[in-house]
Specification:
CATH class: Alpha Beta
Order of helices and strands: HHEHHEHEHEEHEHHH
Number of strands: 6
Structural class: alpha/beta
Helix content: 25-40%
CATH superfamily: Thiamin diphosphate (ThDP)-binding fold, Pyr/PP domains
Number of helices: 10
Oligomer: single chain
Radius of gyration: 20 Å
Length: about 350
């Protein structure tokens, strides 16, 4: 049976352990922001203000918050189509993300990229990739650049459990280990691929952790719903990468509260499974953690109220924002910035 790293949280009297109150409040604020922003995206979809579909990570906030809080300026994030949370966690304003989902001119990419292609080089978010596994070799390339130039930035590549059965996963891991690249591979194992349980199509129980040994890597399996565990594990992986000791592969056990996308009612899940996982809701877990460490209820409420105001203000700004001009459709289509075909 797999052992999940959970590094028990037992505060000593009067001591706020190695993480510290300031960082704990930052971790909580990040998780609340991700939850409120994505819940708002869901609400806007139901109002027909978000077109097409979207892939939410409600229930998985601790992974994005834990890693982003451990990152330094210059570190790079590579996301999947389920990249809203990772984008927001790196500091991209809520208005920019909701505006992009709503196809408004104030969006991160002026409404042209949409839900599955969020990118902000300014914030170290090097793209959200809709092709399964496509970004793992790209993250290796970015890490190879850092190694070649002697910089200390680290590339972090987030992906779902289904990606572990894609060839690019194995190729990227092998390449990263051979070259000892400063890259961290983070598997967000929420138990399901699109509609298929990962366990039913994978030869090992833990799709990422149980394959680490094949590439000479440590087996790292953690509670992905505990932001403290994620943060500490991320810190260790960043220290290893910056020291030139090569990549890490981390499997975070978590669970998405909604279906694969807005088109998926998730009726394939066993009865009671969602309710059991909601007892380990990362936001709920961390709110109680703050209380254990002596953080006042008023301070917690102040964070929650401030975040709700940010999301409310962003929503109204996006509703009032214009649609992008039509000529935007014909710009930046080809490398020369135009749309005419060259041969």
């Amino acid at each position: 049976m797999a052992t999940v790293e959970n590094r028990a949280q037992k505060p000593a009297a009067g001591i706020n352990d190695d993480i510290g109150e300031a960082t704990r409040l930052e971790l909580y604020r990040s998780q609340v922001l991700l939850r409120e922003a994505e819940q708002r995206a869901f609400d806007l979809f139901l109002q027909n203000l978000v077109k097409g579909t979207s892939h939410l990570s409600l229930g998985q906030e601790a992974v994005a918050a834990g890693f982003a809080t451990a990152m330094k300026p210059g570190d790079l994030s590579f996301c999947t189509y389920r990249g809203h949370a990772h984008t927001l966690a790196r500091g991209v304003p809520v208005e920019k993300v909701l505006g992009e989902l709503m196809q408004r001119d104030n969006g991160l990419m002026r409404g042209k990229g949409g839900s599955m292609h969020l990118t902000s080089a300014e914030h170290g978010v090097m793209g959200s990739y809709a092709i399964i596994g496509a970004h793992l070799p790209i993250a290796c390339g970015a890490a190879w650049r850092a190694q070649y130039k002697g910089t200390k930035d680290v590339s972090v590549c987030f992906f779902g459990d289904g990606t572990t059965n894609i060839g690019a996963f194995h190729e990227a891991l092998n390449f990263a280990v051979v070259w000892k690249l400063p890259v961290i591979f983070v598997c967000e194992n929420n138990l399901y691929m699109e509609y298929t349980p990962i366990a039913s199509v994978t030869a090992v129980k833990q799709p990422a952790a149980d394959r680490a040994a094949a590439y000479g890597l440590e087996r790292i399996l953690i509670d992905g719903n505990d932001a403290d565990v994620v943060y500490r594990t991320a810190q260790d992986a960043f220290a290893k990468a910056r020291a030139g000791a090569g990549p890490s592969l981390i499997e975070c056990l978590t669970y998405r509260h909604s279906g694969h996308s807005r088109a998926d009612p998730a009726k394939y899940r066993p009865e009671g499974e969602l309710e059991r996982w909601k007892e380990r809701d990362p936001v709920k877990v961390y709110r109680e953690r703050l209380k254990q460490f002596g953080v006042d209820d008023k301070a917690i409420a102040a964070i929650e109220n401030d975040v709700r105001k940010i999301v409310d203000d962003a929503t109204e700004a996006c509703k009032a924002a214009p649609m992008p001009p039509l000529d935007l459709l014909t710009t930046d289509v080809y490398a020369d910035g135009g749309f005419a075909w060259r041969n």
